[in-house]
Amino acid sequence: MAGTAESGYAAALRELRGAQKTAKGVSLYSRYVNRPAGRVLAAAAYRIGLTPNQVTLISGALSFAGVAALALARPSWWLAAAVWAALFAGFALDSADGQLARLRKESSPAGEWLDHVVDAAKITALHAAVLVSFHRFFELPGPGWLLVPLGFQFAALLIFTGGLLADKLKPRGTAAGASAQPAQPLSRLRAVALLPVDYGVFCAVFLLLGSETVFLAAYTALFAVHALFLVAFMAKWFRELNAIRPA
Fold first, then answer.
1. Higher local confidence (pLDDT), 229 or 21
2. Deepest in the core among 11, 40, 189, 228, taking most CB within 10 A?
3. DSSP output for 48-80
4. CATH for 2-242?
5. Residue 157 has what pLDDT?
6. What is the per-residue pLDDT for 177?
């Protein structure tokens, strides 16, 4: 029986390795850390019979456990490790649900909707929890620093929803035509440049919670980078969509 379980897991893992999405527009973290972690978790979920929606809900539960800990507990090194671990696992499972859906051939509009709703909720809640933590526990240089999490939340949500809408509004034929073209090599420079706006890299910032000064500086720096990327992304997406002409 153990051999059957192992072979079932191994077979699922092999199939998942050959069914990965394109790496275009993906940072090095997502390509080399989050997607492989999600692949392992998807194979395990497949072996024990979980559905993609169940994996999405588990991902959300872990992420919100980290959010709650951040808002309720005083910053410390143990809290830093706990929050990061919850967010890391939640993000890996966020990759696993889509891979599991492809493996089980159960992709559906409802499942995609649930996945995006959970993603939007955790982005909103995480920056709200930082705001709560700043107000309750941090000795900030001034009250104006409480605007940083609000600004970060605004930028992160617009990047998420703007990118999602841009992808959905592009004609299906465009995506199909692109997929028929020979695969382009991954741009290493682009993959590195996207690291600051990768959710997994953002989660790693919470490892610095043991030092209020260092965390505040790192969180603010990432906010500034997100604000710059927001302007660049919005211009890019509008230009691409504006170039599309009705048939």
1. 229
2. 40
3. HT--HHHHHHHHHHHHHHHHHHHHHS---HHHH
4. 1.20.120.1760
5. 97
6. 38
